[in-house]
Structures are given as structure tokens and as C-alpha cells.
Amino acid sequence: MITLNAMKKALKITLNATPILIMIGLIPLIANDYLLTVIYITLIAVSLIIKNTKNDLLVFTLGFFIMIASEYLFVSTGVEIFQRNSLFGLMPLWLPFLWGYGFIAIKRSIEVLNG
Q1: Measured between alpha carbons, how far is 106 from 115 in angstroms, rounded to an integer?
Q2: Does the residue 47 lie in any domain?
Q3: Residue 106: how many CB atoms within 10 A of its CB?
Q4: What's the number of domains the chain is made of?
Q5: Is the pLDDT of residue 115 over 90?
Q6: Is 61:52 a contact under the CB 8 Å cutoff?
Q7: pLDDT at residue 77 above 80?
Q8: Distance CA 93, CA 35 (A)
Q9: What is the pTM of this model?
Q10: For residues 57 and 61, what is the distance between their CA atoms, to the nearest angstrom?
């Protein structure tokens, strides 16, 4: 039986993941990586204005740079190949922003589950 508390937690996690779902949904609709990056930055900024919890910017920054390094390694070893390669000629410019916000959503989900 699902409790009311579990339903509230599931709703909070879903709300934290909503910007990611929107960002992923925009990928096939917007072919211009620069425009998509601006939209991602706007969505992330709005999300952080609506709710900015402790260490969100630190977690975003870590996710942003860790995933640039990881994706660079994956692409340079042939594990991944991107058709959109506006960042360093290897990956889409918007991808680190998506990953950075993904790290925030994961952090917030863990906080919801532990709360």
C-alpha cells in the first residue's frame, strides 16, 4: 500500500525532474545548439530561482565539469559519437548543462528520500 508520504515524495522527485524532461524533449525540436544552450541556461536559472537548496550551484558545477571530462574521454576513445559537436568539436554545447542540472535533480531526489 502506497502511503501519502510516499506519494508526496514521488511528486517532489517528479517536479525536480521536470526541467530535465523538458530539456530532453527540446533536443529533437531545436537543431541550433547555441539556441538550445540558451534555453537550457534559462530553464536552469528559473529552476534555481524557484528553488535553490544548499550546494545546488556547487553540485551543478561539479556535474558540468565532471561530465565534460567524462564525455570527452568517451568520445575520444570511440565509446560515444555525437552528430552534434559544437563543444570542442566532440559533443553538443548544451550537454554539460543538461548533465549539470541532472546532478542537481539527483541531489534533490536524495534529499527528498532522506527527508
Answers
A1: 14
A2: no
A3: 16
A4: 1
A5: no
A6: no
A7: yes
A8: 10
A9: 0.90
A10: 6
Chain segment 1-54, per-residue pLDDT in tens: 789 899 999 999 999 999 999 999 999 999 999 999 999 999 999 999 999 889
Q: Which amino acid is at 87?
A: L
Grid cell of 12 as nine digits: 517532489
Count of CB atoms within 10 A of residue 37's CB? 20
Measured CA distances, 44 to 6, 47, 73, 79, 100 (Å): 26, 5, 26, 28, 9
Q: What is the dihedral of CA 9, 23, 68, 31, to 10 degrees?
A: 170
Does 109 reside within a domain?
yes
SS3 content of the chain, % helix, strand, coil (to 5): 70, 0, 25
- The verdict on residue 68 lying in a domain is yes
Show the domain range for 109.
Answer: 53-115
37 part of a folded domain:
no
